[in-house]
Amino acid sequence: MEPPQESDPQASGGTQECGLRGRVLVVTGGCGFLGSHLVRLLLEREPELRELRVLDLNPDPALLPPGHGGRVRLVRGDVGDAGAVGRALWGAHVVFHAASLVDVWGGSSAQDIARVNVQGTKNVIRGCRAGGVPVLIYTSSMEVVGPNTRGDPFLRGDEDTPYPARHSEPYPLSKAQAERLVLEANGATVRTQECPGGGRLVTVSLRPTGIYGERHLLLRRLLLGGRALGGWLPRTLPPHAEHGRVYAGNVAWMHVLAARAALLRPQAVGGESFFCYDSSPLAAYEDFNQLLLGPAGLRLIGRSPPPRPLLELLARLGVALGRVLPGPAPLLTPYTLAVGSTPFSVRTRKAERSFGYRPLFPWERARERTLRWLRGLG
């Protein structure tokens, strides 16, 4: 993964004084999909940081770029383990909490999802307060807002747009609960050596739309599944349901800018949530996938999906079979059918105003990087 190219002069987020020079940073879930993008971007954009700790269940040195100069410390640990979290966070300046169990297909139990996403977040907040960490940047999700299963559209909305959020599945419910914990912790007392009476914790929550990019497991599964079907993918979602998708590198960049702002201008961002999107085309979910999978050799079958009653029947059948048969969970479930059929897109003007967010990677560059990875899959 080569160094990123900025899309415009303002993309640098300010001068080096606004960076994270001399700081100790922690990325939870740093070997996961988004976490690995964030780790690489931090090492590329913040060459003078003191130490970067990567907390993950399965630390992988192969994910680190060459020449990181010994600034990275891989830490094996589970965010559900309060002791491991506390040790990893102790004395850090910024924690990026990206660890999450992402499952909207029913492959994980509600208890497992809550343990990682809710209890894990509680452990991170406690670790920040006990370990003297002044800044916590949380990777939330658009799904704390929607799409809801009722099908209410949310077209190019922002953080103040009213929307009837309805959390019927464990994953979006867990992310909403975790985000609430993070935002409520803003201003909490933090024990520090410099200030025995305690400093104050600054928390920020970022809500990416559907993320894509290198090492995205769902894109990989779609590509390999399509190849097994002779290069075809059946259309199962309506082509008119506009969705916003965001490149992982731009999500990582928003994390960096939010951390800089939280250190320098905490009153501007503390306790706030921000949608995260970039310049990627607004399109129906499967049509956007085709922009990436098409050049990799797959074709989408059909201009319109099968009748809705048939899809709903297949979705329920897939869930039932998934409970008794081995293998990965089915991609088509009643929840994914409802979400993929509901228009949902966002704007990022709040992040632009609050800390100067602009996408670091333009759409053409994000697509090129993702395509290169897809074409390299066996």
Describe the structure.
This protein has 378 residues and is of the alpha/beta class. It has a domain at 9-212 and 246-279 and 345-362: Rossmann fold, CATH 3.40.50.720. It is 38% helix and 16% strand. It has twelve helices and 15 strands. The strands form five sheets. The chain has a seven-stranded parallel beta sheet with strand order 3-2-1-4-5-9-13, with helices on both faces. Strands 6-15 form a two-stranded parallel ribbon. The protein has a two-stranded antiparallel ribbon with strand order 7-8. A hairpin with an 8-residue loop joins strand 7 and strand 8 (199-200). The longest helix is centred in the first third of the chain and has 22 residues, at 110-131. The chain is globular. The chain starts with 23 loop residues before the first strand and ends with a helix. 46% of the residues are buried.
| Radius of gyration, taken over Cα atoms and rounded to an integer in Å | 20 Å
Task: Tally the beta strands.
Answer: 15
Q: State the helix count.
A: 12
Q: Which stretches are low in confidence, meaning pLDDT under 50 for 5 or more residues running?
A: 1-17
**How helix-rich are the residues, as a percent range?**
25-40%
Structural class: alpha/beta
> Sheet bearing the most strands, described?
7 strands, parallel
Mean pLDDT: 91
Q: Can you list the strand order of the major beta sheet? A: 3-2-1-4-5-9-13
**Which architecture of the domain at 9-212 and 246-279 and 345-362 per CATH?**
3-Layer(aba) Sandwich
